[in-house]
Every structure is written in C-alpha cells, then in structure tokens.
Design goal:
18 helices; binds protoporphyrin IX containing FE; 5-stranded mixed beta sheet; alpha+beta; 410 residues; 3-stranded antiparallel beta sheet; Cytochrome p450
C-alpha cells in the first residue's frame, strides 16, 4: 500500500484499484486490523467472513447518529475540517439502533416485499428493453450511462413518484455524498445542502398533492397511526433514492464486466438460463457493489476473533473481504456462476439487511439477462484503463465502454 499515517495503511488509490489484495493480506494477519480512512480517521477493518457476519448482527457495534460525529472526531489522526453532514439527511434507519430503527423499518417494509417487487417485473423489463433499443442503435456506448445507471434510478423514481427532471443534478449530489470521506469537504457540504432543500420541496409537494405512490403513503399515517416527522421523511427519501442510485448500478456494470471477461462463464449462462439468478449472486459475492458496510462504532470494548476493539472505535465491516474469504467460499478469487453463494454478505446481515435486496436482484437479473440475450458484448477499453470509483464504500466502475453487436435468432 502507499501512504501511511502513524504506521497504519491509509486507504487510497492502491486500495481503490484493488481492495481484494489488501483485504486478503489483512485477513491473514487478524480478524480486525487498524487502518486509516481516506480523510485521516483511524478505524478497524474486519475482513474475515465469520467475524464480519457476527459484527453486522452485534448490537455492541452501534450505528446511532447521535454519538457518531463525536466518535469520528476522537479518531481523527490528521487535522481536517470536519465534514458536516446536513442534519436533515441523517435521521434514517441505517443510522439508527433499535427501537428507533425498528419503528422506521416497519413503516417502509411493506413496499419492498418480494411480492410487491414481483409486481414491478413487467415495468422493469419494459424500461430495460427501451434502454437496450437505444443502446443497440448506437452500438458503442458506456454501459453505465446507457443501462446500469438509468434502469435502477428510473425504477426507484417511479416507485416514489419523483420526477426525473433533476436527475443529473441529483446524481452529482448523490455521488459526492457517497464519496463522503474522500471528496472536497466544501463540495460535500454544498451537495448535502442542495439535496436537503430539494427533498424538503418534494416532501412538501407530496403533502399538498398526495398520489397513490409509496412516498405519498409515507407522508401520511400508517395503519396504526404512526408516521414519520418531516425531518425523518426527508432522510428516508434520501436513503431510498441514494440506495437506488449508488448500488444496483454497480451490480449491473460489475456483472456485465465479469461475464464479458469470463467467456466460459457467459457460455454456460447462455446454455442454461436457469443459472441466471445464481450468476447474479456470484457477481454480488465476487465484486460486491457495496464494498464496505456503513460505519459502526463501539460503545464499550468488544472482542472480535481474538482482537479487542476499544470503546469509541470506528468499525468498518468489509463485505468484499468476507465474500472473498476462502474458509467460507473455496477458491474465492475464481468467478464461478454455478458455485454455492448462500450466506454471502453483499446485502449485509442482521437488522440492517438490505431492504431493497429483492428489487436489486430482480433488476440485476433482467438487465444482465436481457443484455446478453440480445447482444454480443465486447469491452472496448483496455482493462488497465478502466477506473474504479475512488471511494471506500462502493465498488463500481466509473464507466464501462462496450461495443454491442445484435445476436441473431438462435
Ligand atoms: C445491488 C444493490 C444493492 C446492494 C449491494 C445493497 C447493499 C446494502 C447493504 C450492504 C446494506 C446494509 C449496510 C450496513 O449494514 O451497513 C443495505 C441497507 C439498505 N438498503 Fe440496500 N443495497 C442494494 C440496493 C438497494 C435498493 C435498490 C434499495 C431501495 C431502493 C436499498 C435500500 C436499502 C435500505 C433502505 C437499507 C437500510 C436498511 C436498514 O437500515 O434497516 N438497497 N443495502
């Protein structure tokens, strides 16, 4: 690795280019290792499967937003202007412990059940077909811009009945906020403020003009009379829209990338379509779109796999690390669409297990399946010219130039 602070590796360019090699080294050494995050915060990185899984479900690793800034500050190794996250955006369930988490999650669970999501299937197929028609006409496209990004964002915006007209701005703010610790603090603050203002306007609009969409339902009381307050509504809209923007895009692009560079696996998939769901699971395991779970912190000393993580530490569970642990997944660096992937950590584990998993899986299957049904896909950039996004949270390509050749009837 490149830079060090206080004798600890800083997660920087080398890490973004190949996090797997770094995780493999740490995994050999210990269950959890101290490292430094890109903006100089000391944290413990968990890279083994068993410990990653148990940490994700352990209430001693808190996520509650109230003490979070203080813990981050305590672990700051270099002086940096503190990155202030807009207050309106933090009060969502991914930043909460029970009972607050339980209450918020209950209010939104209904919209994301496998049954509700299944009802969206024809519409997801329709959007995919239209995007593939357009991409096919061009022939040479950036797969991220042509399919991987617009599909999930159109779906989540339709679910919430949010207009698509400010989609480009939203993408810029969302990317800056997810980059979080890596970008310029002022740009981050500005992105947060813009996002909060935009979402506050949306919430107001929904209050005045309720529809039969899921967002309108959230604005109004649920069956038992509980409802989100205005601040929580803004934060919830933020969580759902950002999750819709930043994750499935990478499942689709990472999947196309790995299938295109593993022709034997693609041939297997084309020969047997029943392998498609398993192929999507293998993409999730092999190149997990969420590289690291969101931050946790300790309220007491916690022992994890023989390592004592002191009170008030920042803890980062590496989902990619757990998913490439050979003690759980034999020959973990081999991409194999027919392997057993059950128990992978790509959607997290425990009470914060991804609410959008059924939706993401369906979108991934439809996008990847339809693309390879209709086209032969050649990646047109040399592999070493492809850039992975310089952020720790997400594992995704900045762009994926491809050439699409229609396949004849088989
Ligand atoms: C391939 C796509 C996706 C991946 C890999 C993914 C991954 C994850 C992970 C790892 C977590 C837990 C984070 C942690 O414990 O720190 C999570 C939580 C969450 N995800 Fe996803 N996600 C995806 C798509 C989506 C979509 C499409 C939505 C909804 C629009 C969504 C909504 C959420 C929500 C609301 C939570 C918080 C749940 C809670 O705190 O109880 N995700 N996701």
């Amino acid at each position: 690795m490149g830079e060090q602070i206080a004798g600890l590796d800083v997660l920087g360019e080398d890490y973004f280019a190949d996090p797997h090699a770094f995780h493999a080294r740490l995994r050999e050494e210990a269950a959890a290792s101290p490292i430094v995050l890109p903006r100089g915060t000391r944290a413990w990185l968990v890279t083994r499967y068993e410990e990653a899984r148990s940490a994700l479900a352990d209430p001693r690793f808190s996520k509650h937003f109230e003490r979070f800034p203080e813990v981050m500050e305590r672990n700051q190794l270099v002086h940096n202007e503190p990155t202030k996250f807009d207050e309106a955006l933090v009060q969502h369930m991914l930043n909460m412990d029970p009972p607050h988490h339980t209450r918020q999650r209950k209010l939104v669970t209904k919209a994301f059940t496998a049954r509700r999501v299944e009802q969206l299937r024809p519409r997801v197929q329709e959007i995919t077909d239209r995007l593939l028609d357009e991409a096919g006409e061009k022939g040479d496209v950036d797969l991220v811009d042509a399919l991987a990004f617009p599909l999930p964002i159109t779906v989540i915006c339709e679910m919430l009945d949010v207009p698509l007209d400010r989609r480009d701005e939203f993408r810029v703010w969302s990317n800056a906020l997810v980059g979080g610790g890596t970008g310029d603090p002022q740009a981050l603050q500005q992105a947060g403020a813009n996002m909060a203002t935009y979402l506050a306007e949306l919430v107001e609009h929904k209050r005045a003009n309720p529809g039969d969409d899921f967002f309108s339902a959230l604005v109004h009381a649920d069956d038992e009379g509980d409802r989100l307050n205005p601040m929580e509504l803004i934060a919830m809209a933020f969580l759902l829209l950002v999750a819709g923007h930043e994750t499935t895009v990478n499942l689709i692009a990472n999947g196309v990338f790995h299938l295109a560079r593993h022709p034997d696996q693609l041939a297997k998939l084309r020969a047997d379509r029943t392998l498609l769901p398993g192929a999507v699971e293998e993409v999730l395991r092999f190149e997990s779109p969420v590289n690291q779970a969101t931050f946790r912190y300790t309220n007491e000393d916690v022992e994890l796999g023989g390592v004592v993580i002191p009170k008030d530490s920042v803890v980062v569970v590496s989902l990619s690390g757990g998913n490439r642990d050979g003690s759980k997944f034999p020959d973990p660096d081999r991409f194999d669409i027919a392997r057993h992937t059950a128990g992978h950590l790509a959607f997290g584990h425990g009470i914060h297990f991804c609410l959008g998993a059924p939706l993401a899986r369906m979108e991934g299957e439809i996008a990847i399946g339809s693309l390879f049904d209709r086209f032969d896909v050649t990646v047109t950039a040399e592999e070493d010219r492809l850039r992975w996004r310089p952020v720790t949270l997400i594992r995704g390509l900045e762009s994926l130039p491809v050439s699409l050749t229609p396949r004849g009837p088989r």
